[in-house]
UniProtKB/TrEMBL annotation:
<feature type="domain" description="Roadblock/LAMTOR2">
    <location>
        <begin position="14"/>
        <end position="105"/>
    </location>
</feature>
<dbReference type="InterPro" id="IPR004942">
    <property type="entry name" value="Roadblock/LAMTOR2_dom"/>
</dbReference>
<protein>
    <submittedName>
        <fullName>Roadblock/LC7 domain-containing protein</fullName>
    </submittedName>
</protein>
<dbReference type="InterPro" id="IPR053141">
    <property type="entry name" value="Mycobact_SerProt_Inhib_Rv3364c"/>
</dbReference>
<dbReference type="Pfam" id="PF03259">
    <property type="entry name" value="Robl_LC7"/>
</dbReference>
Length: 139
């Protein structure tokens, strides 16, 4: 566990995620590292579930980045993935080097407003949302 992830283990940034969920039709929010470690979670989701979702979101962003060439250039920068389900959407956005922000929402959510709000939150948090990549075995 890196120093930032350990420091954030007490969920000090959870209140900022809760603030994002004041938008109508949003459900949960998590902040995760590239290796799938939970860095913060909103109040509406328990820590165990948030940790499970963080691991899944890390895989989702990895798959999305791996398909960059399909967009025209394999070296293009991944910024956001929106996944649609019968019961809603999952927004996954880059939140700095090695950090990602995920929000789930109902099918009635204003997608454009959520995307804008997430980018706003990423900019606002700045350095607090960065997590340096892991180094060494298993990285």
């Amino acid at each position: 566990m890196n120093e930032l992830t350990h420091h954030l283990g007490d969920n000090k940034l959870g209140w900022m995620l809760d603030e994002t969920l004041r938008m109508p039709e949003t459900r949960y929010a998590i902040l995760l590292s590239a290796d799938g470690l939970l860095m913060a979670h909103s109040e509406r989701i328990g820590r165990d579930e948030a940790e499970r979702q963080a691991a899944g979101m890390a895989g989702l962003q990895s798959l999305a980045r791996g398909t960059a060439e399909f967009c025209g250039d394999r070296d293009t920068t991944w910024r956001q993935t929106i996944t649609e389900f019968d019961d809603g959407y999952v927004f996954l956005v880059a939140a700095g080097p090695g950090a990602y922000l995920a929000v789930s929402a109902s099918p009635r959510v204003d997608m454009e407003a959520v995307s804008f709000r997430l980018q706003e939150l990423v900019q606002r948090l700045g350095k607090e949302l960065t997590s340096p990549p892991r180094h060494g075995p298993g990285a």
